Amino acid sequence: DMHTHSDCSDGITPPNMIIKHLKKNNFKTALTDHNTAQGVLSVYKEKDAKNHVIPGIEVNSADGPHILAYFYDPKELGEYSQKYVSAWKNYNPNVKINKGALQIVEELKKYNCIISLAHPYGFAWTNLDWAIKHNKEIKKLPRMVDAIEVINGCLLEDRNKKAADLCNNLSMPFTAGSDGHIIAEFGGTFTCSQADDIG
What we know:
Strand content: 15-25%
Oligomer: single chain
Order of helices and strands: HEHEEHHEHHEHE
């Protein structure tokens, strides 16, 4: 499951309960709290965290799109969050930061991470069509990222299909995630891949 949230952003489950749940069920997730690495850094104090949690973040841009980033090293994620996200948060830390999506992606490219465009046809201002109407430069965004989230567990089928069509038209890799905000939603949507190990 490549898209989940703890109570360090707008989820309701504390990170220590998430790691217990993942260990018990032999399951792996990308913990992608909004605009913070706090949940990931907390989880990575636990033994075997790397076998169950991919260090991630969901950065909410000022011009609409949400950007998912998956890091190989939680310390690098923490550094990125501190250097490029923390000081740009608004009154509500879970909503958009004071940076545009293109700038967020350019800053993420300085790190060893995989960047995915989250729910490109989500609701309101997170919708790519809405964002492009308000800023033509956003048209560049899908080609700047490494992957596109084509299945989001919180969206209706037609919106996910539109994301899949975008991904196919651009011949890009894709991700899928529950966008779970409660632990019962984790794993409701998942991504499969061929690999030699769990990492």
